[in-house]
Amino acid sequence: MKNNDVKIKELKIIHEQWTDTLVLKNNDVIIGKIKSMNKGVLQIETDYSKSDFKLEWKEVKFISSSRTHIINLTSGVLVNGILSKSKTPNKCEIKNVETQITTEVNLRDIVYIKPVDDSFWDRLDASFDVGIKLTKAENLQQLTINVNLGYTAKRWFATGMYKQIQSIQDNSEPIRRIDTDLSYVHLLPKDFFIPLSVTTLSNTEQDIQLRILSKAGYGKYILRDNKKYWGVATGLSFNHERYFNSSEAYKSLELYLGTDFNLYDIGDFSIQSKVNVFPSITESKRVRTDFNLDTKYDLPLDFFIKLSFVYNYDNKPKNGAAKDDYVFQTTFGWKLD
Length: 337
What we know:
The structure is a single chain. This protein has 337 residues and is mainly beta. The protein has 2 domains: 2-115, no CATH class; 124-336, Porin. Helices cover 5% and strands 66% of the residues. The strands form 2 sheets. The chain has a 12-stranded antiparallel barrel. Strands 1, 2, 3, 4, 5, 6, 7, 8, 9 and 10 form a 10-stranded antiparallel beta sheet that branches. A hairpin with a 5-residue loop joins strand 17 (228-243) and strand 18. The longest helix has 16 residues, at 2-17. The chain is globular. The chain starts with a helix and ends with a strand. Mean pLDDT is 87; it is low at 1-16.
């Protein structure tokens, strides 16, 4: 009798764990545990596969789950809700756990799903890529490293980034560039958000020993669907700089205007571009610009190839330093979901 009770309890635990159901347009049914839906791709864990399934969101016809999820709509609505199957294909019902109001929406109007009860590791995303170049000519040795981390909570997300490029060759001064970025974004209703960040730059080409940039602002997603997003933001930044061969620190207050565009419904490709312009408030007629472009091609087993282009411009650099600098990288990497 006790053994039967144990078996019944085990079956109940398994049933409760795999309660999320998907019905695809070809009428295939997948039962498991939804991990996330973002950028038009849904990821679901099942008990009959060692790796998670990833499928295009547009292929889903019905969805249901008894768990609470963070759900974001194209209208900018952000809700903690429970997904229920609708009687109409390509639609679902969302029950707001805070107001207990149930609303029917089109599946195409859902741009983001994330379980609220996920553990720390489920909410963490990470990727790493590296590039190495060695040539006999002039004994060239070049190394590039990129590390990206991301964490998603109910109403906010945080990202961390580290990029390094280092080049050494005979009859030439060593080249080194290190970029870091620690960002926090708090999500608000109607697709507004509050961005906070601290970035650093060390760059031998522009004679920058260390630049620390602290930013705070206010932004909005102009476009956000399962094919692309486009966000804009503005605010203030505090710039603290030190240059090589100089003990003096330079400090300035700047206005910043930024835009971020991401396109991801193009097969295994994704493209992201960021532009930030910094007109100085305390330094007359000084304007800086940062531009980033990342193109990624996804490979099997979560590997990828990435092409990156970074450009920095300063119309009033330190005497003797270059006004601009750019880096073009081709790297191979792996992503942890």
